[in-house]
Design a protein that fits this description.
By secondary structure, the protein is an alpha+beta fold. The chain has one domain: Sandwich (Immunoglobulin-like), CATH 2.60.40. It has 3 helices and 9 strands; from the N terminus they run H-E-E-E-E-E-E-E-E-E-H-H. Strands 1, 2, 3, 4, 5, 6, 7, 8 and 9 form a 9-stranded mixed β-sheet that branches. A hairpin with a 2-residue loop joins strand 4 and strand 5.
Length: 133
């Protein structure tokens, strides 16, 4: 009985340890919802918490594993005006205001920023005369 109780307590402790910390209870979304965007366009990322209110958290946004901005004003969104060098893998991390060691990391979003918007528009116009009118 003592050994069984020890095993149950150990399993409960391990479950508690692994369910805290870097749980993925934050969802990163973006608008427009496309993986290919163009130089000169804007994209808005939003870090949505799956628990509690978004104002209870501090947010940091990352591209390719490097922090690009930290929003101490508890803003859960980030707007970027795109250039081709902003292609990459985006993620947000949320830190609870009352317990900064309580961290939530979001899913990853990969964006490709193309510099071809002008060329695409010209080709579309050339191949479709109705657009030129």
């Amino acid at each position: 009985m003592g050994q069984t109780l020890f095993c149950m307590v150990t399993l409960l402790l391990l479950k508690t340890i692994f369910s805290c910390g870097h749980a993925q209870d934050a969802e990163l979304t973006h608008e427009p919802n496309s993986t290919i965007l163009f130089h000169g366009e804007s994209v808005t990322f939003t870090c949505n918490m799956k628990e509690g209110r978004h104002s209870n958290w501090y947010y940091k946004f990352h591209r390719n594993g490097h922090q690009i901005v930290s929003n101490p004003d508890v803003s859960n969104f980030l707007q970027l005006h795109l250039t081709t060098d902003l292609s990459g893998n985006y993620q947000c991390t949320a830190y609870h205001k009352d317990s900064p060691s309580f961290i939530k990391q979001s899913n990853n979003i990969t964006l490709f920023v193309s510099g071809m918007l002008l060329l695409q528009s010209l080709l579309l116009s050339f191949h479709n005369p109705q657009i030129r009118q």
